[in-house]
């Protein structure tokens, strides 16, 4: 029987099947952070259940960490309490923690892949929806709720109904200035934020095959924004090369054995998906969102739809201060955020540095560069990018979720526009009343330099 990549990884992790019901799936890696783990640890303790496999759990602090003066005590009481609670719980239950001050600390979806914790063919979970990021390695990775975090703590397994399969194909040649972020924003703008509900998505086609691992992570990260449980890309030489030599990756003969297995994972020719979409790379352009969900996106050279009559659409435009039929080109923007688990890897910052080298940010713009992890921050310093960003007037912050969400000091003021490389543009996501426009790192950099939304393709030779 022909199998999909998803089927192969799923089936190899099934521990048991309830007749005509859900299946029990073994989980290889459980990632945790300070926001969603405390309740699950409490549940374990209340029920007097030990943590079953502490070695399979890895923790970091990311959401509530300050991104300035990380050496000082955290000023916000709630954030301080959550980070301290995580430290205590990890000590008590024998879980490895890359907490504040550790050289591996970072956003959970940035630090795990760069350490080789994420590997092809695994099942991975985290109490965080953007766990889908790890699917870039051909991994079944998805976010879980607090009670499921407790379930995995207690059994290293989850009781699950197998999702349906979806494939999104993109073939052709991307234009210069079109980044992986544009590809996923384009897909979501075409199929909507509910198209993936109940499905696990595989991305296929030469566009994904030719992408770097960083780019694939950006794409899989936003699978959740189209409603999918997760996204996956078949592992290939690019994947093996990325994993090779990473701190926790298998070494020597063990690595070769793994690669031989990983090579068997791609979807069989002729395997059938429950739903399939196909797009031409040539139709994709740099994207911007204009509304309050990630599906409300247009090409930067396009216009906000004029013909939609829907109360939530109108409300969304009202919140954003935009009109139907309007173009976003040349809109003044005062905040730019380049970071988050979608776009805070070294490749993102290299692209940004390449563009802004020798340029200055516009005077009115507050531009933040926030590396996704301590390792990325170190690479930025070592590659001399710090000087480029500072000379251009960008502020470099310390690793964490930062202005992706309003849970730390990096908030966007009410009514202000922020071009953000993150993944969510809901009302108040970056602070009460903040107006978020999602875009690629290159579009964000161009906005910072010009002080207004710019079509990057017009600036590249
Ligand atoms: S960067 Fe944003 S989306 Fe990613 S884990 Fe942090 S808060 Fe969530």
From TrEMBL:
<dbReference type="InterPro" id="IPR018136">
    <property type="entry name" value="Aconitase_4Fe-4S_BS"/>
</dbReference>
<feature type="domain" description="Aconitase/3-isopropylmalate dehydratase large subunit alpha/beta/alpha">
    <location>
        <begin position="7"/>
        <end position="451"/>
    </location>
</feature>
<feature type="binding site">
    <location>
        <position position="341"/>
    </location>
    <ligand>
        <name>[4Fe-4S] cluster</name>
    </ligand>
</feature>
<dbReference type="InterPro" id="IPR001030">
    <property type="entry name" value="Acoase/IPM_deHydtase_lsu_aba"/>
</dbReference>
<keyword id="KW-0479">Metal-binding</keyword>
<keyword id="KW-0456">Lyase</keyword>
<dbReference type="InterPro" id="IPR015931">
    <property type="entry name" value="Acnase/IPM_dHydase_lsu_aba_1/3"/>
</dbReference>
<dbReference type="InterPro" id="IPR050067">
    <property type="entry name" value="IPM_dehydratase_rel_enz"/>
</dbReference>
<dbReference type="InterPro" id="IPR033941">
    <property type="entry name" value="IPMI_cat"/>
</dbReference>
<dbReference type="InterPro" id="IPR036008">
    <property type="entry name" value="Aconitase_4Fe-4S_dom"/>
</dbReference>
<dbReference type="Pfam" id="PF00330">
    <property type="entry name" value="Aconitase"/>
</dbReference>
<comment type="pathway">
    <text>Amino-acid biosynthesis; L-leucine biosynthesis; L-leucine from 3-methyl-2-oxobutanoate: step 2/4.</text>
</comment>
<keyword id="KW-0432">Leucine biosynthesis</keyword>
<keyword id="KW-0100">Branched-chain amino acid biosynthesis</keyword>
<dbReference type="InterPro" id="IPR004430">
    <property type="entry name" value="3-IsopropMal_deHydase_lsu"/>
</dbReference>
<keyword id="KW-0408">Iron</keyword>
<comment type="subunit">
    <text>Heterodimer of LeuC and LeuD.</text>
</comment>
<feature type="binding site">
    <location>
        <position position="404"/>
    </location>
    <ligand>
        <name>[4Fe-4S] cluster</name>
    </ligand>
</feature>
<comment type="similarity">
    <text>Belongs to the aconitase/IPM isomerase family. LeuC type 1 subfamily.</text>
</comment>
<keyword id="KW-0411">Iron-sulfur</keyword>
<protein>
    <recommendedName>
        <fullName>3-isopropylmalate dehydratase large subunit</fullName>
        <ecNumber>4.2.1.33</ecNumber>
    </recommendedName>
</protein>
<comment type="function">
    <text>Catalyzes the isomerization between 2-isopropylmalate and 3-isopropylmalate, via the formation of 2-isopropylmaleate.</text>
</comment>
<keyword id="KW-0028">Amino-acid biosynthesis</keyword>
<feature type="binding site">
    <location>
        <position position="401"/>
    </location>
    <ligand>
        <name>[4Fe-4S] cluster</name>
    </ligand>
</feature>
<keyword id="KW-0004">4Fe-4S</keyword>
């Amino acid at each position: 029987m022909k199998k999909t990549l998803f089927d192969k990884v799923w089936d190899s992790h099934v521990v048991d099947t309830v007749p005509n019901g859900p299946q029990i799936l073994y989980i290889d890696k459980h990632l945790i952070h300070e926001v969603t783990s405390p309740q699950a640890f409490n549940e374990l303790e209340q029920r007097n259940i030990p943590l079953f496999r502490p070695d399979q759990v890895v923790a970091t602090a990311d959401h509530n960490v300050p991104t300035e003066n990380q050496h000082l005590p955290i000023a916000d009481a709630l954030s301080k309490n959550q980070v301290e609670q995580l430290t205590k719980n990890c000590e008590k239950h024998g879980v490895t923690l890359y907490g504040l001050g550790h050289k591996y600390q970072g956003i959970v979806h940035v630090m795990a892949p760069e350490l080789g914790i994420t590997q092809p063919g695994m099942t991975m979970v985290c109490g965080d929806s953007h766990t889908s990021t790890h699917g870039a390695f051909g991994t079944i990775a998805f976010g879980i709720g607090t009670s499921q975090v407790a379930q995995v703590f207690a059994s290293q397994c989850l009781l699950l109904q197998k999702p349906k399969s979806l494939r999104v194909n993109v073939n052709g040649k991307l234009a210069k200035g079109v980044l992986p972020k544009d590809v996923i924003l384009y897909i979501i703008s075409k199929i909507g934020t509910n198209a993936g509900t109940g499905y696990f998505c595989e991305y296929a086609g030469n566009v994904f095959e030719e992408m770097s691992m960083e780019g694939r992570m950006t794409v899989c990260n936003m699978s959740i924004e189209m409603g999918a449980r997760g996204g996956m890309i078949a592992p290939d030489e690019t994947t093996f090369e990325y994993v090779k030599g990473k701190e926790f990756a298998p070494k020597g003969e063990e690595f070769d054995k793994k690669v031989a297995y990983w090579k068997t994972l791609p979807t069989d020719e002729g395997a059938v998906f429950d739903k399939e979409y196909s797009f031409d790379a040539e139709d994709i352009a740099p994207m911007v969102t204009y509304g309050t969900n990630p599906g409300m996106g247009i090409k930067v050279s396009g216009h906000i739809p004029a013909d939609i009559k829907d109360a939530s659409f109108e409300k969304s435009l009202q919140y954003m201060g935009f009109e139907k039929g309007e173009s976003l080109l040349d809109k003044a923007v005062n905040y730019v955020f380049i970071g988050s688990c979608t776009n805070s890897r070294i490749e993102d910052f290299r692209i940004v540095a390449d563009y802004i080298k020798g340029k200055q940010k516009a005077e009115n713009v507050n531009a933040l560069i926030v590396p996704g992890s301590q390792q990325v921050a170190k690479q930025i310093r070592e590659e001399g990018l710090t000087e480029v960003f500072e000379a251009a007037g960008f502020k470099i912050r310390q690793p964490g979720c930062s202005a992706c969400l309003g849970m730390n000091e990096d908030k966007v003021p009410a009514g202000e526009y922020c071009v953000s490389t993150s993944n969510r543009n809901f009302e108040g996501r970056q602070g009460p009343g903040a107006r978020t426009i999602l875009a690629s790192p290159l579009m964000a950099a161009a906005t910072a330099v010009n002080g207004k939304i710019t079509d990057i393709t017009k600036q590249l030779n």
